Amino acid sequence: MRTPKPRGPISAALLTQLTQPPRPLPAALAELANQARPGTPESVLHDDDLQLSLWICYELSYRGFAEVDHAWESEPSLLALRRTLEDRFVPALRGLVAPISAVPPEVLPGALKELIEADDGPALAPYLQRQASPEQFGEFVAHRSIYHLKEADPHSWAIPRIGGRAKAALVEIQSDEYGGGRFELMHSELFRTMMRGLGLDDAYGAFLDRVPGVTLAVSNTMSLFGLRRQWTPALLGHLAVLEMTSSLPNRRYGNGLRRLGHDAGTTRFYDEHVEADAVHEQIAAYELCGGYAQDHPDAVEGILFGAACALAVDNLMAAHLLTRWERGESSLRATPAPAVA
């Protein structure tokens, strides 16, 4: 993947440094990040410059960029910059969700279900099923490609950090996400097949320059929880909500594609999730989160926080799409102008 276009002073300065040999970042870059105004939770989640800068920092621990030396991943000054950006991001996440009250570990699965039932986010799935144009459905898939082309990877960071029933449950879920060892059944590959069926570029990161900050925030939330061991409970709660809220929306998405005339090859990604996540829902709630909470009673609040973040950030992205479409506008950013030779 090539480096993206900058979206503000922080990402511009960061990208300038990353395309040079690894060395301590200049103090001026850290000052830029420190001087940024906190803003409301919503404004921070929509902040293109912040979210892109954080996404770039996280991506160095995934596949990286063609122009960036691998050694940047562990450069102390870059890790310090990432922490500074997180110091704006984490309070925004906390401000976005309602206060979390801990519950006894044995009732955690029920508390997760109650959290989901209380969610009243935008009705994006019904819109895609019944009303979305081919262009709008393609935009939705472009937004989701930022996560789905690395599907399961952020949550797999938890595997070496947990044990017992929770570890076994997580490996069972992740094994299905990775196709049970069969490349063509990996969910990221099924998503790539769907993208090709829709006539979209299926390259990893192809739409990075086109998606807004709030879409990057969806992935940044997972990476924050996955790359920092202190956030392991939140990562488990995050995954649980994805699994527990997946079946019905994916059924709607598949039906939306069928309404638009697409065949089983294109809808397979969504059809597969309807069946798989109906099973994963129970495993995630009872064995993964419930099992972890039994072993770590003090982790219940963190699990619920991660679950609440998954719902809240996804709702912000859904609201962005629906608002733009209601105005007759694209939900994607304009194509960046080519660099001047």
Summed up:
This protein has two domains: 9-96, no CATH class; 105-326, Up-down Bundle (Heme Oxygenase, Chain A).
SSE ordering = HHHHHHHHHHHHHHHH
List the total number of helices: 16
At the first level of CATH, the class of the largest domain is: Mainly Alpha
pLDDT < 50 stretches: none
Specify the biggest β-sheet. none
Helix content: 55-70%
Radius of gyration: 20 Å
Query: DSSP strand (E) fraction?
Result: under 5%
CATH superfamily of the largest domain: Heme oxygenase-like
In CATH, the topology of the largest domain is named Heme Oxygenase, Chain A
Helix/strand/pairing category: mainly alpha
Shape: globular
Number of strands: 0
Span between termini = 21 Å
From the coordinates shown, what is the CATH architecture of the largest domain? Up-down Bundle
Query: What is the averaged pLDDT score?
Result: 95
Please, how many domains? 2
Topology:
Elements: H1 9-18, H2 27-35, H3 41-46, H4 48-59, H5 76-96, H6 108-117, H7 124-130, H8 134-148, H9 153-156, H10 164-177, H11 187-197, H12 213-227, H13 232-244, H14 247-259, H15 264-295, H16 300-326
Helix pairs in contact: 1-4, 2-5, 4-5, 4-12, 6-15, 6-16, 7-14, 8-11, 8-12, 10-15, 11-15, 12-16, 13-15, 13-16, 14-15
Structure, described:
The chain is mostly helical. It has two domains: 9-96, no CATH class; 105-326, Heme Oxygenase, Chain A (Up-down Bundle), CATH 1.20.910. The protein is built from 16 helices and no strands. The radius of gyration is 20 Å and the shape is globular. The two termini are 21 Å apart.
